[in-house]
Amino acid sequence: MLAIITALRAEADPLIDHFSLRRDMARHAIELFRSSEIVLAVSGIGRVRSAMTVGALCGSEGGIEAILNVGIAGCRDCADLGGIFLINQVRGPAGSRPFLPDMILNLPCTERALRTVDTPMWSADPTLLPNELVDMEGSGIGEAASQYLAPSRIQLLKVASDNLERTTFTRSSIAGLIGSHLGTIETCLFTLAHLTNASTSSLSPDDTSILTEVAARCSLTYQQRKILWDLATNHRVQAPRSSLEFLLTLAPSAVHSKRETRDVFNQLRRSFERPSL
Fold first, then answer.
1. pLDDT (tens digit, 9 = 90+) per residue, 211-251?
2. For 2-195, which CATH superfamily applies?
3. pLDDT at position 197, please?
4. What pTM, to 2 d.p., does this model score?
5. What ranges in 19-170 are assigned the alpha helix state H?
6. What is the pLDDT of residues 157-182, one digit of tens each?
7. What are the pLDDT digits (tens) for 32-86?
8. Which residues pair with 277 in a beta bridge?
9. Which segments of the chain does DSSP mark as H helices, in order?
10. Which are the contacts of 263, defined by CB distance < 8 A and separation ≥ 6?
């Protein structure tokens, strides 16, 4: 099971829709949404709430294999506004230990450090480092999740939402910021899923790189990616010395509709059925 943690329901809404998650009405202490493969928890704002949510989730769910924190964050550089960033370091308030995720994900986004604070931080703060993002949950999630998972299974994606000035957000504006990066978020989640799945050990780094590029070009859904990875794994077992580069020749540079995605995906599936492979 893969877990997504957001602080705000507005951050969660586009993910709930995209992954077709349903509210878990049996759980009242935590706002949970789930499918057969993903559980999403809305923690509320702050380090303590986020840490308690991670602890409750890992302690009660069982089988949590990876955690992805998705949310908005402030930044000093206006050029970063609206962009999504993979966090490579999280530092909390003075006295707390920094959290360092293992940077094993090959994602189409820039890495940034994250500063977690307990009260709002403004752009003029002299302790803010260049290119550092600011949130109020990251270090709580990193510290709590480290009690249950290896650093490679804990990742944070932040969308730069403001330039650390007093900004008024609406639920729709926050959802729009997250929703504009669903492709990157899905790629991150899917990569985490397969890094935790021992059945993919037969795939080489080159195989994974090719599959990731094909999935991105074709805008494959989570389920389509899973099927493609499984087909590639079976292919690799049967033909250990062959290459998966034939997939790149089948994948267009981009697709422009769900129907086109479906057609290309079916072509990719059929390619594994050819006796010549």
1. 989 999 999 987 788 788 878 887 887 788 888 999 999 99
2. Nucleoside phosphorylase domain (3.40.50.1580)
3. 65
4. 0.76
5. 47-61, 138-145
6. 999 999 888 778 899 999 999 999 99
7. 999 988 999 999 999 999 999 999 998 887 788 899 999 999 998 777 899 999 9
8. none
9. 9-18, 47-61, 138-145, 171-179, 182-195, 205-218, 222-238, 246-250, 258-271
10. none
Look at the alpha carbons of 230, 234, 240, 241 in this order and tell me if their dihedral is positive or negative.
negative
User: Which residue bears the tokens 């923690």?
Assistant: 43
Q: Where are the alpha helices (DSSP H) in 36-97?
A: 47-61
Q: Under 8 Å CB-to-CB from 6, ≥6 apart: which residues?
A: 12, 15, 40, 41, 42, 43, 69, 70, 71
CA distance 224 to 260: 13
- Can you give the pLDDT at residue 239? 82
What 3-state class would DSSP assign to 39? strand
Which pair of tokens denotes residue 23?
Answer: 């509210």
- pLDDT tens track for 132-163: 899 999 999 999 998 888 787 899 999 999 98
Yes or no: say if 265 and 220 are a contact pair by the CB < 8 Å rule: yes
Task: Decide: 142 and 90 in contact? Cβ < 8 Å.
Answer: yes
In contact, 227 and 219? CB cutoff 8 Å: no
For residue 70, CA distances in Å to 10, 15, 102, 208, 233 come to: 11, 9, 17, 24, 29
Q: Taking the domains of the chain in order of start, what are their residue ranges?
A: 2-195, 199-271
